[in-house]
Design goal:
By secondary structure, the chain is mainly α. It has 17 helices and no strands.
Length: about 475
């Protein structure tokens, strides 16, 4: 690789700071999954209420992330990154002080909103700091690898911290955020806002999108507890708000999302693939934690150590994935990752009451490899070829896809587990039925992303070409 394509020492420093922020976001969500049973026991939450501890964060994140991307383009990426990292720090600490379920849910929602502004700002700093081509793709794969490591390593970290006290799952991110903030103030370069902020915020679009996500996920979560008529009415209201969002965007002079961006087939496939990848991963994580802790009676520490192998993706993403992308192309690697995840979920369908860890290990190994293969290339595909002044919005669309997929997958799995549970709680039949959800998400993801391989010359060729030069 030519010297000009290499990352400088300062470039690496900036990349590590920004990657640490996405690692913080990933580990924060993942630690919560392992801590949920302890939180339920301490605060007296039901299964349906429990999932809102996660979904409140995801909904705040997914609902406001497009506005976050827009704000970073208008007000300045550095300014948005530093400001909302501070808000993230404060409300994560507030969550650790919660004494009731509603307090925790509110704190998680605001923390999610903070992440919605912080994350697209950080991603767009990377895509505008590093030149498009080999340098940017190397940076994005490192970024994605560290992000994937946060999702997986958060499980074992969450187990370790919860074994002390579940509140440390909230206090530990405060310490991490403070360190990242101190480094970011010194290292993240200043930038000039693209345009005047006056009239540039599509609040109507933001509110309609957030409301639509909230109603759609709520309708799925409450499916076992309410009548079919109520479910249909809630879902219809959510769809109506989505239609309203599209109408607002078409008429707005400064739309939250320029709809023309979604007319790009490669970007649309990448975002749908991202949604389905996270839907399966988060749904499976919820099932695995309930199975190990509540059905098998494993401690938080045992559960965390069992899931530690999923952290392998943090090593594979920046090492194995670039080699495979150079050899086979971005699109084929994404499809392969989703295919491996489908195999992983299918293997876990045989889960038994007394399964040994050796029986679970193939699923965990395959899933860590699948996440490493799919996450980074999807990030490249969803931002490749986008104009610099829309990088914040493109990052916001991708993050929306990730977060809405996580919320929807978790909601559907929760609804299935609750619906199939008996008076003694969830059993193997409930877990096996719920596992069909991530399996179906992976299968659909394969169909969506593989459809682009037939048009490889116009879709994945650019990404492959630049990676060929690394």
């Amino acid at each position: 690789m030519a010297t000009s394509d290499r990352l400088t020492a300062r470039g690496w420093a900036i990349l590590i700071v920004l990657s640490s922020a996405i690692f913080l976001e990933g580990i924060d969500i993942a630690m919560m999954g392992v801590a949920l049973p302890s939180i339920r026991a301490d605060l007296g939450l039901s299964t349906s209420s429990l999932q809102w501890v996660v979904s409140a964060y995801v909904l705040g994140y997914g609902g406001f992330v497009l506005l976050g991307g827009r704000a970073s383009d208008l007000l300045g990426r550095r300014r948005m990154f530093l400001l909302w990292l501070t808000v993230f720090l404060l409300f994560s600490g507030l969550g650790g002080l919660a004494t009731d379920g509603w307090m925790l849910v509110v704190a998680r929602f605001v923390t999610g909103v903070a992440a919605a502004f912080m994350t697209p700002a950080g991603l767009s700093i990377i895509t505008t700091t590093f030149a498009e081509g080999p340098q940017r793709n190397r940076a994005l794969l490192v970024y994605a690898g560290i992000a994937a490591g946060g999702f997986s390593l958060g499980m074992v970290t969450g187990g370790l911290l919860t074994s002390i006290d579940w509140r440390w799952v909230f206090f530990a991110p405060v310490i991490m955020a403070a360190l990242i903030l101190a480094a970011a103030v010194r290292l993240v370069p200043r930038d000039t806002p693209a345009t005047s902020a006056a009239g540039g915020y599509d609040l109507q679009g933001t509110l309609s999108l957030t409301g639509a996500m909230l109603l759609l996920v709520y309708s799925v979560v409450m499916l076992p507890d309410v009548s079919a008529g109520q479910t249909a009415a809630t879902a219809a209201a959510g769809v109506a708000l989505l239609v309203l969002f599209v109408t607002i965007e078409r008429r707005s002079r400064t739309p939250l999302l320029r709809l023309g961006l979604l007319r790009s087939a490669p970007l649309l496939r990448a975002n749908l693939g991202a949604l389905l990848l996270l839907a399966g991963f988060f749904g499976f994580q919820f099932i695995a934690v309930l199975y190990l802790q509540e059905f098998r009676g494993w401690s938080e520490l045992q559960t965390g150590l069992a899931l530690m192998i999923l952290g392998l993706d943090a090593i594979l993403a920046p090492t194995l994935t670039p080699v495979l992308v150079r050899r086979f192309g971005n699109g084929r690697v994404i499809v392969a990752g989703l295919a491996l995840s489908a195999v992983a979920y299918a293997l876990f369908l045989r889960v038994g009451a007394d399964w040994t860890y050796a029986a679970m290990l193939p699923t965990f190994l395959l899933l860590s490899t699948a996440f490493a293969l799919a996450y980074g290339p999807l990030t490249i595909a969803a931002t490749d070829g986008v104009a610099e002044h829309e990088q914040g919005v493109a990052g916001g669309v991708l993050t929306t896809s990730f977060q809405f997929g996580a919320a929807l997958g978790l909601a559907v799995v929760t609804a299935v587990v609750v619906g199939r549970s008996g008076t003694d709680g969830a059993g193997l039949d409930a877990f096996r039925t719920a596992l069909l959800v991530p399996l179906a998400a992976a299968a659909l993801g394969i169909l969506v992303t593989a459809s682009g391989l037939r048009r490889r010359g116009t879709t994945s060729a650019p990404a492959e070409a630049v990676l060929e030069r690394t």
